[in-house]
Specification:
This protein is an alpha/beta fold and 502 residues long. The protein has 18 helices and 21 strands.
């Protein structure tokens, strides 16, 4: 038997009855390293049947996940869950755009019309960082291509109110719809052009390829793909009766998994929705929740769910625990739910309370198979919304789906309060700092996670869970002083790492 100098097992730590435990309340003790960090595999089960290479899921929030986020998450080995604070048609469009994505092609390029001004391109350059814009008859994708404007066309033009029809290039090299990336690259190389519009037989713009994208384009061997080689994507639905129509449309669009999005998942409404999904659309996997106790898990597992989403109130913009006095400390919830669900081989998605690589590590170390993130991803360029400046800091809006603002836009479906005359907020709206592109940010997080696995002496998640339940993974409580000691201190100023920017 080990001494307390080597820490204590998870069972003794979490089941001591001393109260709810958060991720900050404990630390994991190191293991023995006999492998290189590159040997670590982060592959995991999202659901019973779906496996992904990186254990990360983007939250179905309207300031976190639409198609840009879902595409980037899937390319980098995770998966995105598209929110439902929109019409059925819009959510379906987001799912289809993700499923149809082909690496290297910009499937929804920004377009302008001939009557737009150079000033409009200046605005696009300021917001998005590029100035090469295809010009279509009505300024929309799917309209006939009539020209192209690049920086060389407008750089030295003093009159920024000048119409684009007067400066655009009309002799545009194009490629037909269906062209392969290899062939498109060859056309760009031979033409020495910077952009290659892809058009259909009627000359309508379908997509766009940029030389700069091809030069920096990487293969994505870790990409999350279905059997038909399309990117994996999920979508949220409610438990309301009209969600069945939304579900049918999403299934037809090829959605791989649905998240039944409820703040309190132990309800007859959710049980009935799980049964409906499994009967009407058996090809679609179901993530049920949210839950925080084994009893809640039991109800949803019996109904037939393929994974469970754990967390009630730990999110950075969620005030459910404070407002309703209902919920549970997140680490305690993940531990107990994962331990119970493991008996039925149902994976756990730890949702909420994650602010760092260390928190991701801890969630996985206490039984989760994946971690769902909102706050950490909301500041990336792939998240919905535009950047703006607040007190000199470049930020994006981030709001809880139970904030008054989000509920007014439709988020109340998650809280059984859509028809309430008086809405009670269980979340807030705020801002998060710019974290750049997910293409750089998520690999940084995953490399940090691999280093954490190496420090624990675990090559993969299966090993981590094995040492967790065998008692070989050791835990130690952290006092407030210990937490302070483990953080930055005694500096006049410092630059925080990308994961911890505030």
């Amino acid at each position: 038997m080990r001494s307390r100098g080597d820490g204590i097992a998870a069972k003794d730590f979490f089941e001591s009855g001393e109260g709810g435990i958060t991720y900050d309340d404990f630390i994991l003790l190191p293991g023995h390293i006999d492998f290189d960090v590159q040997d670590v595999s982060l592959e995991t089960h999202l659901t019973r049947s779906i496996r992904i290479k990186s254990p990360v899921v983007s939250s179905p929030m309207d300031t976190v996940t639409e198609s840009d986020m879902a595409i980037a998450m899937a390319l980098l080995g995770g998966i995105g869950i598209i929110h439902y604070n929109n019409t059925v048609e819009e959510q379906v469009r987001q799912v289809r755009r993700t499923k149809r994505f082909e690496n290297g092609f910009i499937t929804d390029p920004l377009c302008l019309g001939p009557d737009n001004a150079i000033a409009d391109i200046d605005r696009i350059k300021e917001e998005h960082g590029f100035s090469g814009i295809p010009i279509t008859e009505d300024g929309e994708l799917g309209s006939k291509l009539v020209g192209l404007v690049t920086a060389r066309d407008i750089d030295f033009e003093p009159n920024r109110k000048k119409k684009l029809r007067d400066v655009m290039t009309t002799d545009v090299v194009t490629a037909p719809d269906g062209v392969t990336l290899e062939k498109a690259n060859e056309i760009l190389r031979k033409s020495k052009k910077g952009k290659l519009p892809i058009v259909d037989k009627q000359g309508r713009l379908v997509s766009l390829i940029c030389r700069t994208d091809l030069l920096t384009n990487k293969d994505y061997p870790e990409a999350s793909k279905s059997k038909d080689k399309q990117l994996l994507v999920g979508a949220a639905i409610s438990t309301r009766e009209d969600a069945k129509e939304r579900l049918a449309a999403l299934a037809e669009a090829g959605v791989d998994v649905v998240v039944i999005d409820s703040s309190q998942g132990d309800s007859v409404y959710q049980v009935n929705m799980i049964k409906h999904v499994k009967k009407a659309h058996p090809e679609v996997e179901v993530i049920a929740g949210n839950v925080v106790t084994p009893r809640q898990c039991e109800q949803l597992i019996k109904a037939g769910c393929d994974a469970l989403r754990v967390g009630m109130g730990p999110g950075s913009i969620c005030i459910t625990q404070e407002t309703m006095a209902v919920g549970r400390a997140q680490a305690t919830a993940v531990y107990y739910c994962a331990k119970y669900a493991r008996r039925n081989k149902v994976p756990i998605v730890a949702d909420g309370g994650v602010r760092s690589i260390g928190h991701i590590t801890k969630a996985l170390a206490i039984g989760a198979s994946t971690v769902m993130m909102g706050n950490m991803l909301a500041g990336t360029s792939e998240a919905p919304g535009d950047y703006f400046y607040e007190n000199g800091v470049r930020v994006k809006k981030y709001r809880g789906m139970a904030s008054i603002e989000a509920m007014d836009a439709g988020g109340a479906k998650r809280y059984f309060s859509e028809d309430d005359r008086i809405k009670v907020a269980q979340g807030v709206a705020g801002t998060v700092v710019d974290k750049g592109s997910l293409q750089n940010y998520l690999p940084y997080l995953m490399m940090g996670l691999k280093h954490a696995f190496q420090d624990l002496g675990c090559r993969d998640l299966k090993t981590l869970h094995r040492v967790l339940y065998s008692g070989r993974l050791r835990f130690e409580a952290r006092t407030q002083s210990a937490q302070a000691e483990g953080g930055v201190r005694s500096l006049v100023s410092y630059t925080p790492p990308p994961e911890g920017r505030k």
